[in-house]
Design a protein that fits this description.
alpha/beta; 7 helices
Length: 224
């Protein structure tokens, strides 16, 4: 058995997101816009799907986003540290410019898609593996008509999608979704190897319109 659908939902905005700082596993809370994004996106998500199980990273920005959905659908949260963001070690809390100034060679390698040396950082392969294992474990207890929602982080989502599609960890075909947007995957047929199928990416109440980070206003937003 496995869930028929998995949604990988990124948390709402934080002050670090707004200022372009690398968060990793630093526990940064949602800012005011992020809380609005979480509740707005949760309403859009419940209008499209009927979640069966909500699993969240234990970092507060993801947990608060997950709570906005749990309150609307009446489900309890399951916290799982395996769906935390990728650890970036000593780089966490810094802007790209600050990293480049202190570690120019490593930053250049990172910008080109390489795996630079970061004390305390995780490799892409390690994150992909723990994300894939967590999703598979939680989905395994559900039925084909069920929807699993995993509330997690940008880099973790892009790596999880690649792993669930059977792609190598060095595949870089997508970047993380916008804040409070999600990826949708459907379970593949056993005759096709049982791999997941990506049916939507960067989905949300505005599908990441240009004003999404501006916060609430009087504009009528298209839920599609």
């Amino acid at each position: 058995m496995t869930a028929g659908r998995v949604l990988l939902w990124r948390h709402g905005r934080t002050a670090h997101n707004a200022s372009g700082r690398l968060q990793g596993q630093i526990d940064i809370p949602l800012d005011d816009v992020g809380r609005w994004q979480a509740h707005t996106a949760a309403a859009a998500l419940t209008a499209r799907y009927r979640p069966t199980l909500i699993v969240s990273s234990d970092l507060s920005r993801a947990r608060a986003t997950a709570e906005a959905l749990a309150e609307q659908v009446g489900l309890d949260l399951v916290l799982d540290p395996r769906v935390r963001e990728r650890s970036f070690g000593d780089w966490e809390g810094m802007t790209s410019q600050e990293i480049a100034e202190r570690w120019p060679a490593d930053h250049a390698a990172w910008a080109l898609g390489g795996e630079p040396h970061r004390p305390g950082g995780e490799s892409r392969a390690d994150v992909a593996q723990r994300m894939q294992e967590a999703v598979a474990e939680h989905a395994a207890g559900l039925d084909a008509g069920d929807t699993l929602v995993v509330v997690t982080h940008g880099a973790a989502i892009s790596l999880a999608v690649g792993a669930l599609l059977g792609l190598p960890a060095d595949w870089r075909g997508i970047t993380g979704p916008s804040n409070a947007h999600w990826a949708e995957l459907h379970a593949g047929r056993a005759t096709h190897g049982g791999l997941w199928r990506l049916t939507g990416y960067n989905l949300g109440p505005t599908d990441a319109s240009a004003d999404w980070n501006a916060g609430p206003d009087q504009q009528v937003r298209d839920p599609d």
